[in-house]
Write a sequence for this structure.
């Protein structure tokens, strides 16, 4: 239980350096990072329109369907479910192939549009009959088609995803060695969609034992299967309860598999695995402590060194480093003494905005020690003086000037550290030299009360009527 309490403060220390900011802010971000950070790359729930093998036998609609076409599709879907019911009840000659054909027809209809007719399939009673088609002993082709149908139903609205509850035990059961690799992967995809819906369904999956078989799917060197399993796991462990993340990192062989996959040249594979690391480091101190003892930190630094653009893995690497930097003093020292710092300083001034903001969290958290409660954090003066001396202050002040309130807050918090913590009272002069006073004064009448109070408080405290009289 101690891990749960500590995890709540992941990435928090710098955020409470100026004013009392809710400690769960960053923890909440860990749970919603899929929506905030992955939207342009991958959705938290994914529609399966091309099969596991990469081929497809269905015409894919590129544009939104007009109402008349959608109505026809819904009618066809209802008819396909009724047809499937008939074939399942049929026991005569060729019954097995009839079932497969009926499943394939339903799957085609559920894969044709970007907005599949899920509601129509549910109203027609698709779930019970699809569950029946998942029974062990069925041919792989039947299992694959049934799991594919369930995958796309799970990609629907929240209430549509919840309709899969009766299918979950069999979907989880087919993750094991008794099923073929293609069936296991399709079932993992369906479960990833269910986990992506929210905490309630994640808890159901965890209680039914989905975590261990998904973790075992990450152990072999089988790219497509590992990608799907990693994506499903990143949805399953993303909190806010850290228990699943801690349980995952303790699975035999999982940590070695993470390191092995991160070394691959396959960007899609390494990105999915990196997102598992993002959630592990965001939610579990146990996981973070185990990760930093491996080559993960060095691998992430190497990824940061490859580019200053928002390529695959660059934001993920920065996010993991910021999670580690918000941990213990030992973890901060590990990053501070690594090759990461010169890269982070360069990225703070040259990278695209979103990456600069993430890098700012890393550098800021390197300068403060963990504290109890929401008070001002203790400074790690050696780190602060070194980073300021190496030219990071202008980058933070640029964030203060931005229209992004989160970035501005991070910038203000670092300025507070400089004003309060630089030796010999030189903090105010350094801030003034970089036009930091002007950057803060733009918040004098800002609509955001929190930022307004932070900025005005710093100006009043460090640049009041007596400022400069000693000179």
């Amino acid at each position: 239980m101690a891990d749960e309490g500590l995890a709540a403060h992941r990435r928090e220390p710098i955020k409470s350096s100026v004013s009392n900011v809710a400690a769960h802010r960053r923890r909440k971000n860990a749970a919603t990072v899929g929506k905030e950070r992955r939207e342009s790359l991958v959705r938290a729930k994914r529609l399966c329109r091309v099969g596991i093998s990469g081929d497809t036998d269905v015409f894919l609609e590129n544009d939104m369907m007009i109402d008349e076409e959608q109505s026809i599709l819904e009618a066809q879907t209802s008819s396909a479910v009724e047809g499937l019911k008939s074939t399942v009840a049929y026991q005569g000659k060729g019954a097995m192939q009839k079932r497969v054909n009926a499943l394939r027809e339903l799957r085609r209809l559920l894969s044709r549009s970007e907005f599949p007719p899920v509601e129509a399939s549910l109203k027609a009673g698709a779930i019970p009959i699809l569950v029946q088609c998942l029974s062990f002993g069925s041919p792989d082709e039947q299992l694959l088609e049934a799991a594919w149908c369930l995958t796309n139903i799970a990609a629907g609205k929240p209430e549509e995803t919840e309709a899969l509850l009766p299918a979950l035990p069999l979907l989880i059961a087919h993750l094991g060695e008794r099923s073929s690799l293609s069936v296991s992967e399709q079932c993992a995809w369906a479960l990833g969609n269910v986990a992506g819906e929210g905490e309630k369904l994640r808890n159901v999956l965890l209680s039914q034992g989905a975590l261990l078989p998904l973790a075992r799917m990450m152990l072999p060197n089988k790219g497509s299967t590992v990608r799907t399993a990693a994506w499903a796991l990143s949805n399953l462990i993303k909190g806010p309860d850290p228990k699943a993340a801690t349980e995952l990192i303790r699975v035999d062989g999982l940590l070695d598999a993470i390191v092995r996959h991160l070394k691959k040249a396959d960007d899609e594979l390494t990105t999915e695995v990196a997102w598992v690391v993002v959630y592990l480091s965001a939610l579990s101190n146990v996981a973070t402590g185990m990760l930093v003892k491996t080559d993960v930190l060095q691998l992430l630094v190497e990824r940061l060194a490859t580019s200053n653009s928002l390529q695959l893995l660059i934001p993920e690497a920065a996010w993991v480093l910021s999670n580690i930097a918000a941990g213990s003093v030992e973890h901060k020292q590990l990053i501070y003494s690594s090759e990461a710092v010169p890269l982070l300083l360069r990225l703070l001034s040259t990278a695209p905005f979103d990456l600069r903001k993430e890098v700012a969290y890393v550098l800021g958290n390197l300068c403060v020690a963990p504290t109890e409660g929401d008070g001002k954090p203790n400074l790690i003066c050696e780190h602060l003086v070194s980073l300021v001396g190496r030219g990071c202050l202008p980058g933070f002040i640029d964030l203060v000037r931005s229209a992004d309130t989160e970035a501005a807050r991070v910038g203000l918090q670092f300025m507070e550290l400089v004003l309060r913590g630089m030796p010999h009272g030189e903090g105010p002069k350094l801030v003034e030299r970089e036009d930091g006073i002007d950057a803060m004064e733009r918040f004098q009448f800002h609509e955001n009360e929190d930022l307004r109070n932070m900025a005005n408080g710093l100006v009043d405290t460090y640049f009041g009527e007596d400022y400069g009289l000693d000179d």
The beta strands are 368-369, 378-379. DSSP finds 28 helices and two strands in the chain.
